[in-house]
């Protein structure tokens, strides 16, 4: 059955949720306080890069099921369900900043004139939905019924639309069967298995899932570090491990650590959450430490080879925290760039999509190129920090053509060693033997 829905926050989660809910037949109004974003959205333009999103958005704007506003009162008018999808960034102490979520709770209380179900999509610490209920209750101006449901989001950036239509599960945490059933009905057209539970368990499922995935990554990165020292090859090791269904073959890609807007902040928030109830989460603290070391690994390696990087011209290939996104939050490239700045290197960066966002973070401390050839031109060293398809498919003989010296430090194991060995290239990757130019069969 079609429902009238508002989604508050038009970031990666809110916009994708709003667009996909409208696509399965609901009437959706997306609300954001950012005037510029809403202006763009009204013109049918997505403020974020997410494959397939803009097309789907246009389709549903044109069929009248999707609208945008900056005004909460207009946005909440006659809505039966309101999704909260605003940011929950990390505070200085690592805990989640809930000020945006609380603000939305007050916005809801002050503007609704009908019964609603408030659905929290934002990643929030266990107990937050109880707080949301309380804040709404304290600020309500109309005599209406408000139910609160936890419905954490599991989409990945770069495949957010695909993940929304083909997710593994939809988690619905509620203390009221009627509200839970309504959210289940809304999502029915997606045809994804539903897990119904209490609110606190739903909130924990989100953090535990992200922490577990981060743990897999730090685990394989530690194994890769040992492989390097013992002469094993992490690619073969991960493949051999992943064939065991109990382990699974996903999230075993060794590299320069996890970044992005979720794993770094959510792992820290879970450590804080545990600490608040006097539990020291030793395992997760180690996962975070391992990741910090791993992000610095390529530059440390290069320093090991060169002694000093002062005055070297260094190309960074890929700036986004992962391929197929423009998101630069907690990207390994930023760690690399900042370390190289300290070293006194001249730095050039390239990314097919994230250049504008990179400029906002790194400013003029580095130079920017809009193609691979240009970023490699005259470089002494290249660092690969994101496995964009065009970087993975870049022809290996071109490194020696464009670079001053073809020395590549690959943080994402983009190339097979047998291929590298066929070219004039010095190649250092993660958890695999290095290849030296003398090996080249040129
Ligand atoms: N990005 C992801 O891949 C992802 C995946 C799953 C869960 N999450 C979680 O979802 C939440 C949102 O993440 P995101 O990456 O989409 O955030 P984002 O920063 O991209 O977007 C948040 C949006 O909320 C808007 N906003 C803030 N306060 C508002 C208010 N009072 N009213 C209306 N709009 C307001 C901001 O202007 C911004 O556009 C976070 O809790 C995050 O942890 C994110
Ligand atoms: O084997 C792997 C897999 C991932 N990564 C890195 O891990 C980070 C996160 O990657 P990914 O999980 O693909 O992207 P996100 O968009 O951050 O998605 C994660 O974070 C979201 C926000 O909470 C969740 O919704 C998703 O389920 C969860 O996968 C990136 O830096 C990747 O380079 C690795 O190093 N090795």
UniProtKB/TrEMBL annotation:
Biological processes per GO annotation: polysaccharide biosynthetic process; UDP-glucuronate biosynthetic process
Annotated active site: 262 (nucleophile)
First-level EC class: oxidoreductase
GO molecular function: NAD binding; UDP-glucose 6-dehydrogenase activity
Pfam family, one: UDPG_MGDP_dh
Species in which this protein is naturally found: Melghiribacillus thermohalophilus
Protein name, per record: UDP-glucose 6-dehydrogenase
Xref: NCBIfam families: NDP-sugDHase
């Amino acid at each position: 059955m079609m429902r009238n829905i508002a989604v508050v926050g038009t970031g990666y989660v809110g916009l994708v949720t709003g667009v996909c809910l409208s696509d399965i037949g609901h009437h959706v109004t997306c609300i954001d306080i950012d005037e510029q974003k809403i202006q763009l959205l009204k013109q049918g333009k997505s403020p974020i890069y997410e494959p397939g999103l803009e097309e789907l958005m246009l389709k549903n704007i044109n069929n009248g099921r999707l609208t945008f506003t900056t005004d909460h009162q207009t946005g909440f008018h006659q809505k039966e369900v309101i999704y909260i999808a605003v940011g929950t960034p990390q505070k200085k102490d690592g805990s989640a900043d809930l000020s945006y979520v609380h603000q939305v709770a007050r916005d809801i209380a002050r503007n609704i004139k009908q019964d609603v179900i408030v659905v929290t999509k934002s990643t929030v610490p266990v107990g937050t939905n109880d707080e949301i209920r309380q804040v709404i209750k304290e600020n309500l101006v109309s005599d209406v019924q408000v139910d609160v449901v936890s419905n954490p989001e599991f989409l990945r950036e770069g495949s957010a639309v695909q993940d929304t239509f083909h997710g593994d599960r939809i988690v619905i945490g509620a203390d009221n069967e009627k509200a839970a059933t309504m959210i289940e009905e809304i999502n029915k057209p997606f045809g994804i298995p539903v897990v119904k539970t209490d609110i606190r368990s739903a909130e924990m499922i989100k953090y535990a899932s992200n922490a577990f995935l981060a743990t897999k990554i730090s685990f394989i990165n530690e194994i890769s570090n040992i492989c390097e020292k013992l002469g094993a090859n992490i690619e073969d090791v991960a493949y051999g491990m992943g064939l065991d269904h109990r382990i699974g073959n996903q999230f075993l890609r060794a590299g320069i650590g996890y970044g992005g807007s979720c794993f770094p902040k959510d792992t820290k928030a879970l450590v804080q959450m545990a600490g608040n109830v006097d539990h020291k989460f030793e395992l997760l603290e180690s996962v975070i430490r391992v990741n910090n070391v791993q992000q610095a690994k390529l530059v440390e390696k290069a320093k090991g080879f060169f002694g000093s990087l002062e005055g070297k011209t260094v190309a960074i290939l890929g700036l986004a925290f992962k391929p197929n996104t423009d998101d630069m939050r907690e990207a390994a490239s930023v760690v690399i760039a900042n370390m190289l700045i300290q070293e006194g290197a001249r730095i050039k960066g390239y990314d097919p999509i994230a250049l504008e966002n990179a400029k906002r973070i790194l400013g003029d401390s580095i130079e920017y190129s809009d193609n691979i050839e240009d970023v490699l031109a005259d470089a002494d060293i290249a660092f690969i920090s994101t496995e964009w398809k065009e970087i993975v498919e870049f022809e290996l003989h071109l490194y020696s053509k464009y670079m001053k010296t073809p020395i590549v430090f690959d943080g994402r194991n983009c190339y097979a060693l047998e291929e590298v060995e066929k070219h004039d290239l010095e190649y250092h990757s993660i958890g695999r033997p290095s290849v030296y130019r003398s090996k080249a069969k040129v």
